[in-house]
Amino acid sequence: MDLPACDPFQVPGRPSADLQLAQAIEKFHIRQRQPAGYLPWELTQCSLPYRSPDARNRVWRRRNGAAEITVITRATGEQDIGLPFGGLAVLLLAFFCGEAFRSGEPTIELDGSYSAFMKKLGLASTGGMNGSRKRLAEQLRRLTNSSIRIGDDWSVPEEPIFSDWSLWGQSRSQPQPAGRRNFVEFSDSFFRHLTHGDPVAVDLDALSLLKFGGLAANLYVFLTAQLERVKEVEHYNWEYLAARFNGIPDPNYASSKSRIKYEVKRDIRKTLPLILTLLRSQRIALHDSGIHLDIRPMQAFSQSAKGVKAHLKKEPTPSAETPHKQKKDKAPRRNTSRISHFFISYPREEKTYASQLAELLTKADLNAWYDHDIDVGERWVEVVREKIVGCVALIVIMTPDAERSRWVQREVRLAECEGKPILPLLRSGEVWFSLNDCHYGDVRDGELPGAEFVDQLKALCQPKQTAPARNARRLQAES
Questions:
Q1: Can you give the pLDDT at residue 326?
Q2: What are the mean pLDDT values of the chain's consecutive 10-residue runs (479 residues total)?
Q3: Residue 92: phi, psi to the nearest 5?
Q4: Element spanning 170, H or E
Q5: What whole-number distance in Å separates Cα of residue 332 and Cα of residue 326?
Q6: Sheet holding 233-237, edge to edge
Q7: 30-66: buried (b, 16+ CB within 10 Å) or exposed (e) per residue?
Q8: d(Cα 442, Cα 231) in Å, to the nearest integer?
Q9: pTM greater than the 0.70 cutoff
Q10: pLDDT of amino acid 153
Q11: How far is the C-alpha of 40 from the C-alpha of 195, rounded, in Å?
């Protein structure tokens, strides 16, 4: 695996940091779970500062197109607490938002010990001046004492990110009593914006790897959002990226524009190889002029390919020399049940069941495809997208784990956008709200679907008769 030339974590006193990073990335790619945090869309477009701001900077304001955020830190007594910054602040906010979004409750209960909480975040507990315990505690303190406004409506006053909190010895208004529970509670406006908006799912394991790389964490979150939302092609030049990822608000921005552009360009070039390794996407490329995203849907390529095939398949002018050859070329295209395939979408926990289902369809002379035979690499997303675009229908194995899986949800959304039939199989739990209008098969008894389901799949493989063909047969019968 190719690693970036510079370790973005910049952890002092670790001669084997590159080796540890390689091992962490390897574990990231072979894991069986898909832990998801969430962030409001505006916070993926307008990130928190990635470096420690000056203590005198109590307001952080960023605007990116239609997105705008304003973060204000408050003072306790005569001491300014400071703005939240860096990868740890992004990791904390994504974790808390993910817990609230999944539970539908603004209050998040935390583990009894600080070490257990760090373990849940994927952080090793280290002490000292630069240890993870002190760094995480500092960002928790800054987040819980900050207010935020999302959007440009200045008639609405900014509200605290957390309306109440109690964390390992401290609470919002006074020292924490002995034995009191540990929790954070989002403010009404922030929680309403999170649950009623369209938050972006981000990978907590990836953010934990980028915990000490503030720019890397912000860039990872930004590119994750763009991969989901951009429809065709986007190019972000260095001027845009310098304004987007300027780590510290500078009142003399105009005079220091070239310096900021140079620093952001240098830092992005160092961190982007690691981010692309985590995203496993070939749709992002680094150019001399900036970062290029090509998110054109696969059907754009298939349409152009369709035109080429139609041109190549034009039959030559009939002649006495080629009649037999023409008939021979047409014959192999009749077995449509073997050419088309059914895409099986499943969570990792149901891999065995997906394999049994694929074997059942194969025995019924139907093609089934699922991602068991893809080599781990950067073409994984492209192969899955291509298989969904070219499938007859998508079979989704419904379980609570599948409903929480961002990849299963992406596969279902792409199939819907492509107009593919969705065939749910309820394996455990309840029917998803998003698929409650689909006829589903109940396989909660652990058995495979029966003959009725197989017949339904075979019917989907049959070519549809066109109106001219039906009329021709009717006229022939009448004559």
A1: 43
A2: 38 45 55 70 88 78 85 70 89 92 89 86 85 91 89 72 86 61 89 85 87 86 87 85 70 61 86 83 83 66 40 42 43 44 90 91 90 55 83 93 86 87 92 85 89 89 57 47
A3: -60, -50
A4: strand 170-171
A5: 12
A6: 233-237, 290-294, 284-287
A7: eeeebbbbbbbbbbbbbbbbbebbeeebbebebebee
A8: 35
A9: no
A10: 65
A11: 9
Q: Give dist(CA 407, CA 43) in Å, integer.
A: 22
Q: How many residues does the chain have?
A: 479
Integer Cα distance of 298 and 388 in angstroms: 10
Single-letter residue type at 419: G
Among residues 412, 433, 414, the alpha carbon closest in space to that of 423 is found at: 412
Question: Of 435, 440, 438, which is closest to residue 409 (Cα–Cα)?
Answer: 435
CA 116 to chain centre: 26
Structure tokens at 149: 């406004």
Quote the Cα angle for 272-276-280, to 5°.
Answer: 175
**Cβ(240)–Cβ(207) under 8 Å?**
no
- For residues 236 and 45, is the Cβ–Cβ distance under 8 A? no
> How far is residue 424's CA from residue 144's CA, in Å, rounded to a whole number?
42
Amino acid at 209: L
CA atoms of 408 and 387, how far apart (whole Å): 14
Q: What DSSP state is assigned to residue 178?
A: T
CA gap 294, 223 in Å, rounded: 12
SS3 content of the chain, % helix, strand, coil (to 5): 45, 15, 35
How far is 221 from 216, CA to CA, in rounded Å? 9
Q: CA-CA distances (angstroms) from residue 283 to 280, 287, 378, 380, 382?
A: 9, 13, 9, 12, 9
Burial class of 338 by CB neighbour count within 10 A (0 to 12, 13 to 18, 19+) = exposed
The CA-based dihedral angle spanning residues 171, 173, 179, 182, taken in that order and rounded to the nearest 10 degrees: -30
Q: Residue with structure tokens 């940091």?
A: 17
Q: Assign residue 104 a region: left if phi > 0, alpha if psi is -120 to 50, beta otherwise?
A: left
User: Which residue has tokens 């914006």?
Assistant: 193
Distance CA 394, CA 414 (A): 10
Helix (H, G, I), strand (E, B) or coil at 396: strand
Residue type at 285 in one-letter notation: A
pLDDT at 335: 40
Question: Cα separation of 21 and 17, whole Å?
Answer: 6
| DSSP structure class, residue 10 | -
Question: Residue 427, by phi and psi: left (phi above 0), alpha (psi -120 to 50) or beta?
Answer: alpha
Residue ranges in 31-68 assigned as alpha helix (H): 41-45
The Cα–Cα gap between 39 and 462 comes to 44
Nearest residue to 35 (alpha-carbon basis) of 209, 216, 273, 275: 209
Longest dimension (CA), the chain: 100
